[in-house]
Amino acid sequence: MTIEEIYQLAIKMGTAADPRGKRGVEKYLARQKKIYDELPQRKKEEFDLESLKNPYSDTRILFGDPSVNVDKIMAGIDFDTGEVVLADRLNEKGEGIDLLIAHHPAGGALASLHEVMDLQVDLMASYGVPINVAEGMMTNRISEVARKFGPINHYRSVDAARILGIPLMCIHTAWDNLGWRFMADIFEKEEFDTVGDVVSELKKIPEYAQAVKFKAGPSLFTGSEKNRAGKVVVSEFTGGTEGSKEIYEKLAHAGVGSIISMHASEENREEAKKHHLNLVIAGHIVSDSVGANIFLDELEKRGVHIIPTSGLIRVSRTKSGKGR
Ligand SMILES: [Fe+2]
Ligand SMILES: [Fe+2]
């Protein structure tokens, strides 16, 4: 596979698993096109044209020639200069890594992370929050995230990759969509009596079983295992980063009982508690691994070798047939 083919596969799989559905993603791209068309020429030159074809601002080829053929990749959750140097060291030993794939974005994909958060508006609407309310809350939160991520030194790993000449790509929301779909197919479709039942089911998934051994497994931030689970939603698995804390009240009113989340700030925890929601924290890096593995299995099927690193709990369902 070439780098371009891997990139296109990420967009394709991410779209197929997107909570907005294929139609919703097409509508989003159409809205982007309209925004672009209405821009004055001067502003058009600043516009990221890739965002007219790729709905995920945080999924991009950051460095490298897209036509390069890929036999071996190093894949992980966070890539900084250290991971790039690690790949270079391995290549000196004859490893032959052709491409680095990070989950968390870097470069312009990090600086524009907030752009994917619009996805959460549709996601919250699918859980029963009126779309205007979800949109109003998310608009404030998106500008907050843009300001928060603005001052970061976005290009460190991209610079390291460029200096050492190793292609680098990041696949963020496309993988998180895969993780969300996998989890939603279990936890939003099956019935769970108690929160404890939800946690037990979570621990049956091989990535989480491993995370428990690493002392980074699922935990409860609010509620109790004895509590009735009510309606379970996987509302905090995709869409860039943590949404608005005001959403908990609306979700509770919409009939949600338990939320499965990758991670939550103290502020959000307080708010979920106030509205009597059970907040099941599945674990951050392990949950990112679930989505990553679904994609990496597809690369493996196409003959690409994978070196997992940077916290990625690699479970190959093609090799082991393990797990759900
Ligand atoms: Fe993620
Ligand atoms: Fe993450």
Structure in words:
By secondary structure, this protein is α/β, with parallel strands linked by helices. The protein has 2 domains: 193 residues, NIF3 (NGG1p interacting factor 3)-like (Udp-n-acetylmuramoylalanyl-d-glutamate--2,6- Diaminopimelate Ligase, Chain: A, domain 1); 104 residues, 3-Layer(aba) Sandwich (Udp-n-acetylmuramoylalanyl-d-glutamate--2,6- Diaminopimelate Ligase, Chain: A, domain 1), CATH 3.40.1390. The chain contains 15 helices and 9 strands. A 5-stranded mixed beta sheet has the order 1-4-3-2-9, with helices on both faces. Helix 4 links the parallel strand 2 and strand 3. Helix 1 runs parallel beside helix 9. The longest helix has 19 residues. The chain is globular and about 55 Å long. The relative contact order is 0.16. The model has no long low-confidence stretch (mean pLDDT 96). This is NGG1p interacting factor NIF3.
